[in-house]
Design a protein that fits this description.
With 472 residues, the protein is α/β, with parallel strands linked by helices. The chain has 2 domains: 335 residues, Zn peptidases (Aminopeptidase); 110 residues, Alpha-Beta Plaits, CATH 3.30.70.360. Helix content is 39%, strand content 18%. The chain contains 14 helices and 14 strands. The strands form 4 sheets. Strands 1-2-6-3-7-14 form a 6-stranded mixed β-sheet. Strand 1 and strand 2 form a beta hairpin. The protein is globular. The N terminus is likely disordered. Keywords: Hydrolase, Signal. It comes from Qipengyuania nanhaisediminis. One of its GO terms (biological process) is folic acid catabolic process.
Amino acid sequence: MKKLALIPLVAACLSMPLAAQTADPVAEVEAQGDRTARVSQQIWDWAELGYLENRSSGLLQDELQSEGFQVEAGIADIPTAFLAEWGEGGPIIAILAEYDALPGISQTAAPTREQSEHGAGHACGHNLFAGGSLTAAIAVKRWLEKTGTPGRIRLYGTPAEEGGSGKVYMTRAGLFDDVDIALHWHAADENSAAARTSLANRSAKFRFRGISAHAAGAPERGRSALDGVEAMNMMVNMMREHTSMDTRIHYVITEGGSAPNVIPDFAEVFYYVRHSDAAEVQALWTRLEAAAKGAAMGTGTEVEWEVIHGNNPLLVNETLARAMDRKLRSLGGIEYTSEERAWAEEISKSFGENAEPLEEAGKVQPYAKTLGYGSTDVGDVSWATPTVGVRTATWVPGTSAHSWQAVAASGHSIGHKGAQLAAKALTLMAAELYTNEELRKAARAEFDAARGEDYEYVSLLGDRDPPLDYRE
C-alpha cells in the first residue's frame, strides 16, 4: 500500500466504533491473496458457460462452507445459483459473485493472440468477479468475528449474467428483499467508483418455419425460413433510423440452413434490444415483434419467439457511490511488477491507436455520474435494495470487455491484483456500512425517493422459467 493512502484510510476508520477498529479489514483481504488467485485461476481454466457453471459454483460453495458459512444451493430454481450466509443480528450486507464465461472467444494467458482449444473464455472477467467477491465475503466474516460487530454477510452466487439474467430470477423470487445494502464489482481497464448506470435490455430467439424443397428442381413448392429471418432483419435495420439516441439493437443468425440447394424449413435469429429506459425497451420490442410478424406474412412462413433474458437499468445510489469512491481512493490503483509491465506492454501493442498509457492502471478515475452502454442483471437487484459497485483495473488500460485481451489478463497476475483491490474496496465499504447507521439511512432514503411511493417491480422477463439450456 502506498504511504499516502494511509491518511484517508485512517480517516475512514475513525467513523467506526472503537471495537470495530481492533481488526484491519484490508489486512483480512491481504491474508487471502493466494485464495483470490487460486480460485480466480481455476474458474478461468474451466470457463463454464451460463447455467452450466457446476464446477465453478461448487468450488465457491466449498470455500465458503470451509469458512463456516451456511450455504443454500439451487435457489430460484437455478442449480448453479446459491446463497451463503454468516453472522447474526445487525444489518444484512450482500456481495454478488458472477462466474460464467462467454462462448466463441478463447485465449491463453499469452500477451499475443493465441487461441485456446476450449472454445469459451472469461472475456468479461467473471472468474475474477468470483474470486474477488469470495475473498471479500470471507474477509468481512473474519472482521465481524474479531470485532464482535453484529451483522450478517451474504455472498450470492449468481450464474449466467451473460445473456441469462440469473439475478433477475433471484430478484423475482424475493431473495434480496431483506438485504440492507448490496455490493458488487466488475473487471475493467481502469479503477473507478463512478455512479454508473446501464441500459435496460431484452433478448429473444425468433424462430421461423417454412417448407423445404429442392431449390432448383421445385422452388415453387418451398417457403424459405431463412427468407423470413432476412426480411425481419431488413425491416429492423430500417427501424434503427427511427429510434432515439440511447437505442442499441444487435442480432446474430444462429441457424440458417445447411445447403444452398435445400430451401431451409427452419431458421433462427437471436436479437438484443437495449435502451436506458425500460419502458422504451418495451416499446421498441412491440415494433420488433411487428417486424417478425410482417416478415413471416410476406415470406409465407410462420414465426414464434422465446424471450431469453431481460434486465432493468442500474438504479444509481450516489450516497453509496460517493462512499465507495472514498474507499477506492484510500487504496489507490494497481502497481505492476517489471514482469507484469513487460507483459502489459506487449498486450498494449495490439490496441494500435486505442492504446492507453499503462500508468492509468495506477490511478483512480474522477468521480462522475455516467451512463454505461452495456447491460447487467445487477440492475434488477438495484431496484430491490440499495446497491453500489466498483470497477478495478484487472485488464491492461485500453482493453475492451469481450475481447481476447480481456481473456488473457483475466488469467494473469494483473487480473488477480485487480480482484484483490476490488475485494479490499468491498470489505472496507461493508465495514463502514455495519457501523455507520447514518450512511445506511441516507442510502435508503435516496433509494426510496428514486423508486417512488407507488413503485412495483416489473421483470422484463415476464413469468418465464430460467432458460437453463440457452448455452447448450
